[in-house]
Amino acid sequence: MRVKKLVSIKLNNKFSIDISAPLELKIASASIKPGDVLIVASFSGNVALIERELKIFKSKGAILIAVSEMHTSLLASLADYTIYFKTTRFDYKDEAFASMLPIHQATNLLAIAYFEYVRKQERLQKENEERDL
């Protein structure tokens, strides 16, 4: 796992934190609450380095969503839900490459679906409140 800057943003009144290193995940696991959602995107699905922390999240009632390439993996076996993507590998100048586009598309679609879900829930709540008046 590469270490990147920790980013916290608020989406639809929910906080989203980009956790890019195992230590950050370990720190975050201390404050997890039931119903929190952890989305783990991994090209290979090989998450042995963070397996313990993922199990801690799950034991505390968090929902684990995996975004991974289409094959059996440790990440997929731990997840409550898995979104698979397929990519094509290619060689260029004696190096192997794989496009990152499918993983970005999968996470983008997940975010869009979440926003639509929240919008629908808010609309239903507003309709119920108006009906109760």
Question: What do these coordinates show?
Answer:
- With 133 residues, the chain is an alpha/beta fold.
- It has one domain (7-132): Rossmann fold.
- It is 41% helix and 27% strand.
- The protein has four helices and seven strands.
- The protein has helices spanning 22-29, 51-59, 74-78, 101-132; strands spanning 7-11, 14-18, 37-42, 63-69, 81-85, 89-92, 95-98.
- The strands form three sheets. It has a three-stranded parallel sheet with strand order 3-4-5.
- Helix 1 packs parallel to helix 2 (51-59).
- The longest helix has 32 residues, at 101-132.
- The termini are far apart.
- Mean pLDDT is 81; it is low at 1-12.
Descriptive keywords:
two-stranded antiparallel ribbon, Rossmann fold, 3-stranded parallel sheet, 133 residues, globular, alpha/beta, 4 helices
